[in-house]
């Protein structure tokens, strides 16, 4: 992301529970959907795509074909199935096609490259990068539309977002639908049983890891196949802490500014990963396994800590042992007395620049950013929405309440979602993996990434 300096810290915690959270398969009564907004126009298909015309009934009528692409990962697909069904019911003359699945990003890539994309896209999962899509001219410029856009409740969309949209050279191309915080998880029940202290900073994290290792358990496991987990939860917060809690260094890195990667804060953060490695705290299995494998080892108490996002409990809901209680802190890399750094990430939605039915796509945006749909998201995905809400009366899981506690604390540094250049991001991920297994030094990590940044900034 080129820049996103507005933090929206006051609204971020509220996103964590617009309604009582539950895992996939919640039996709670489904949220009632508001009636479609009344208007004196109808949308009809023409050779140019869609067109709005007056109708006798005065209701907005969408017609034609409308295709939605969505990735299915840790949040599941129950919400997508429900919201699409709700939208279809509200617009019976529209032919809605859903293209979703765990491999949908790869499957749809030829169509994006070929200029024949779906109308609407949920930007989440591997091999889909919003910055790259903007640079490739694949996403619709939503800047002017969003200034006055209202959801189907009549609320101005920008007023109800917990975290505002990112900007690319001052323009908006996608809108955050889901807000996640990276962090470190552990089992509270296990720690209480073993008498292990829960970490609050780097020193306490290392101290308890020594005790954990002495007890015969590996302290730390990460997802070597997808190193953005350890980068998001360990490296980037450490960089911010070492940079006097100034998040601009990450924003400069996202802009591929070479000098940002050469700052002392980066080297300080990299040395903390080296410290984990040299103390023997990192599970040697990490380097070759994926997210679910590392999460399973964590749930089996083979490893005490894991860096992850807030979706973890829902993603592994079927495998969580009885009595397991998720502990969570956004960062452990700050020194004693230092501020916690919450590195947030978002899953965004956008309209394709070459969409054939932009009217329907914009109407769908107005539909999904309603409070009722935010409530349904919370219930059906077990994860926070990016729409402001009240957590005080919720039945949110303990780890979500822990996240809310940190995100509302004045001593927490909240980092807005940042997307790096795809090639630079890949270089950082590969270099971090190599660093964790002593293949390279911190200095060589910087050299590798600087080369990638130079190429990206040309």
UniProtKB/TrEMBL annotation:
Transmembrane segments: none annotated. Keywords: Signal, Transport. This is Extracellular solute-binding protein. Residues 26-60 are annotated as: Disordered. It is found in: Cell envelope. Residues 1-22 form the signal peptide. Gene3D superfamilies: Periplasmic binding protein-like II. One of its GO terms (cellular component) is cell envelope. Residues 27-60 have a biased composition (Basic and acidic residues). The lineage of its organism: Bacteria, Bacillati, Bacillota, Bacilli, Bacillales.
